[in-house]
Amino acid sequence: MKQLKRPKTVYVCQKCGSACPRWVGRCPECGEWGTLVEEVATPQEQKTKPFLGGDKPIPITQVKNLTTARLVTGIQEFDRIMGGGIVVGSTILIGGDPGIGKSTIVLQISHKLTQSNLKVLYISAEESVYQSKLRAERLQIDSDNLLIASETNIEVISAYIEEYKPDFVIIDSIQMVYRTEIPTAPGTVTQVRESAMALVYLCKRKGISLMLIGHVTKEGALAGPRTLEHMVDTVLYFEGDRFQSFRILRAVKNRFGSTNEIGIFEMKNEGLEEVANPSELFIAQADRKATGTVIVPALIGTRPLLIEIQALTSRSYYATPSRRVSGIDFNRMAMILAVLERRLGVPLGSQDVFVNAVGGVKVDEPAADLAVAIAVLSSYKNKPVQDGTLLLGEIGLSGEIRPVNHINNRLQESARLGFKKIVIPADNNKRLLKPEGITIISSSSLQNVVEMML
Ligand code: TYD
Ligand code: MG
Q1: What is the pLDDT of residue 217?
Q2: Given the DSSP bridges, would you call strands 293-300 and 246-254 parallel, antiparallel or unpaired?
Q3: Class at the top of the CATH hierarchy for domain 67-276
Q4: Which of 62, 65, 64, 81 is CA-nearest to residue 73?
Q5: Residue ranges per structural domain of the chain
Q6: pTM above 0.90, yes or no
Q7: Is 240 in the pocket of ligand 1 (CB under 6 A)?
Q8: Is the domain 280-453 a CATH 3.30.230.10 member?
């Protein structure tokens, strides 16, 4: 009698995607507790076939040049993050919380592409075509070049791609689609990975640009994140407070542009709108005479933005005082507090310290050190910074102020927004293009800046 083969089960970590032969409480790969979920392993003979088309090796000189053409959407905030548009044939993963506006932005991108006579295939795996139509009407999309199908089966979707030959394919979302030969449910790590792989290979072979939408899990990671992030060329995160209308699109990986770049949008009734003057967003409009606030011209990606740093110190009632940051690198703050304590003799050991970058951006460059230090001191001494002066500079361990990069771009943005005074590192004085209407004070010591400003 032929023996039936029992399907082999493996336990897959829902956070990092690594597989274990048996269940354990803690993932041996990423160390997370309770993330292992039973999945039926793919039988060997059903494993993914090679998709990239069995071409024989050829000399590299004979490989035809890939066109590095880019699909320019005309949505500038988006094009800039992408490094000047979507590279033809590339794969983009866009992640974010439910309801943040992922479907909206991809529909708007599709709309712009169809206006340049490109054919877009939108696979709506989560909503019916009627629901998508409602959204499209709200966004005033009226192009016959935008094809829409509500489908979840990868084989069917692949057949559509082969048949309709679109220039751009959108899968909304990757967690809802499945391959029939993979015996696990949609949304599991194996299914997400295998489905994405099938689509990525198909689109790469055909030179079609592909955009995958992914939901962020509770822990803030895309399901099966590591495997998906390796597979695609660009990973974007769409973030923002659901209680505020501003949304930040952030590139965390980009094979064709710089990472760290952000695009800023506002959710309006007629869809997402680009924010024309983003620096204004990150400066609390409150009283300039408040204590504990400093504005720094920080570089976010390649763009200078004025960002307000707020700090609060308050007497601690615990043996270990509390330190909290939001939008600032924790280790940098710890270093700055140590410099303040040792070099300037400020007794912060008895204080709880909270530091925050306004507006939900992440400022992780050392150029914001001086702003953080002065904000903390301003709160501690309960004195506002003189004349709302901007502060720029990296702080070294001996309390010296070190130079920053792209000084001229930063000065320009500061002057453009009407600020009158800025402190910069003395070493940046060379090759300075001084913009009109802003007084530049240079300094090389933290002690010196404190005496001047507070
Ligand atoms: P949606 O794109 O459906 O989010 P996701 O795909 O990330 O789950 O957007 C959802 C929210 O956006 C919803 O609360 C309604 C709001 N919205 C607007 O405010 N204006 C608009 O024009 C559209 C289309 C949506
Ligand atoms: Mg959606």
Answers
A1: 63
A2: unpaired
A3: alpha beta
A4: 81
A5: 9-44, 67-276, 280-453
A6: no
A7: no
A8: yes
